[in-house]
Structure formats: C-alpha cells, structure tokens
Amino acid sequence: MRICEVCGREITGPAYVAMIEGAELIVCGECVRYARWFRRLKRGERAVERLQARADVRRPLMARAVRPGVPTRISELEKLEVVEDYGERVRRAREARGLTQEELGQLIGEKASVISRIESGKMVPDIALARKLEHALGIELLTRASEEVKVRAAKPPPVPALTLGDILAMSAPERGKRGHEEAEGHSG
Fold first, then answer.
1. Were 28 and a residue from 11, 50, 70, 99 both cysteine, which residue would form a disulfide, CB within 3.0 to 4.6 Å?
2. pLDDT digits (tens, 9 = 90+) for 33-83
3. Against a cut of 0.70, is the pTM above it?
4. CB burial of residue 31 (10 Å; 0-12, 13-18, 19+)
5. Sign, CA torsion 42/45/47/52
6. Are 115 and 133 in contact (CB under 8 A)?
C-alpha cells in the first residue's frame, strides 16, 4: 500500500515519482499535476531506495536553496511587506530597461493589465509576484515588516461588557443621595 506524499490518500492506480517544489515525492495521479517533472513508478520498484541513493549523491536541498538575506521559511516570509512606493519603482525600472508593460508581463508570466495595475497602485503584488518583479527588474520591493506597524495594528484589549448588576451598583450611590435628600426635604 502506497500513500501519496502530497494529499496523504492511498494511491489507487499508478504511482509517480515527481519533482514538486524541489523535492522528489511519490504521488498519486491527481497530485502529479503539481509536478515540474514526473515519471511513472514501475510495479514493484522501490522508489524510496532510489530516492535515498540519489540524495546521497546530491547536496542537501537546503544547502542549495539558502542564500544570504533571502528568507526561505514561511515564518520569515510573513515578516516581509511591499514597500510603499512599489508602483513608482516598478515603472521607473521597467522604463529604464526599455521594456513595455506587455514585455515585462511576458518576462515574468503575467498579463500586461497586472503590470499596469501594479504601476498605478491599484494592485499590491503578493510576495511571490514581488519576488518575480525584483528578479526581472533588479530592484527591491520587499522589506522586513517593522514591529511598529504590528503594534499599531494590534487591537486594544476587549473592554468587559457591563452587566445589569454593574449598572445598578454604579447608580446605587446616586439613588441613596436622592433618597436621603428627598427625605430631608419633606421633614424640613
């Protein structure tokens, strides 16, 4: 019984060895669509042993992927934000390289309308798109999020709701004063 390493379901039908996000995985027929390349696993073939043999020859995956200053973990990516003047930076860099919006779009695999909306500030690029633009244009669009922004964006602690008992307790001293004054007013 083989289990798909992407969706976790039991593989019924052919199994595949596939390259997904830089890792060789054993996947089902449905998850093979996420692969950069794949090949069908032969009946009785022990893919694990082949993959381990290949892994011994190659350098570890993280050794190839890690570059100084480039975040690789999801928690580090969440700390990134797009700079405020991203549209102006993209437009200036594109024009400096003599590219049209259509040409830049083709270069990074996006439509010209996406480039236009980014340059006009109507669309904020996500982290992946910002990375593509940075690479294609040789500019910086992502910065580390400042702690200041996180503090300002935090919600204040919730104020406890008043109960009827709280309202009565607050109004009790006033009620006592009025009752005392009324009683003095009638006797005098």
1. 11
2. 888 888 888 776 665 544 445 544 444 444 444 445 555 555 555 678 888
3. no
4. buried
5. negative
6. no
